[in-house]
Amino acid sequence: MDDLGVLQGAWEREPFVSTGLDDFSDVFSLESAERLIHSGLPLTALRLFRDGRQLPSELMLRNRGSSPRSREKLADGTKITGLVAEGATLTLEELHTHCPEVAAFSAGLARETGFEVDCTAFLTPPQARGVAPHFDLIGIFLRQLHGSKRWRISAPVRRFPSRVEPVDPAVIGEPLLDVVLKEGECLYLPHGFVHVGDTTDEPSLHLSIGLHGVSWEKVFRRLLAAATEQFEELREALPPTFLDLDPAALYRERAELLATHLAGLDWSLVPVDTLRFRQPQVPQILGSLTAALARAGSTRSDSARMPEQRSDS
Fold it and tell me: What pTM does this model have?
């Protein structure tokens, strides 16, 4: 990857754009999106936005009649296409569940990085805005698959945020980056950077590839758990009069003790590999059902050929 060095330098620090990338249609495309929306997806796997506001999901609800078997809410592809024609942005979520190609891509990326990976597709008609200015709690890559989209990225309101909060337009700074992303290009956004996307005179389909990075907080929680297991002083209860004690005096002694223990901790207790996310394995999709039927038939034939057990008693 030519941009690997750039990514390592920019990771969690600044956005950047990669250009001239290979075709991505073997993972996801406009045709993939169309197949999915007409396949009867659960309503929870899709969302619609218009001018920054989320639309009620019932607008795309499929009428399945009154049978008890039809209680699960499914999306109606015809209604979805009508809403997109009226200017709505469609998001396709849980793609690793509903699209084998995306699942395989996500699993491969998870193995390579050690991070949990999720993917969401965004389809936006021309001259439209879907999601309002916001930030994400994870680093994301926006891979442009069809058409183009203009992105304006501003500095984080709070560096490395740990919870989702609405973004006040009054506190958004001037854009650090203002770019029109075209097919074959990818925009990296570190977590916390405020961003908003608008389509140009053409529609847009992009795949948002999210990497759930391993935070230092997670590392230190593991280290604290290991130190607590190893050193009994850290498992001792506070004195019954702790509410009357000066907090600084109360914490300082054990904090200094913890620092001493961490300095002498057996680091092999928290090997780096234990921080790796174990992405679910993706089975071979094509031919797997045929192979299963063949195995089932073979098993039944073997059972039929087995001699009957006889009892001499």
Answer: 0.83
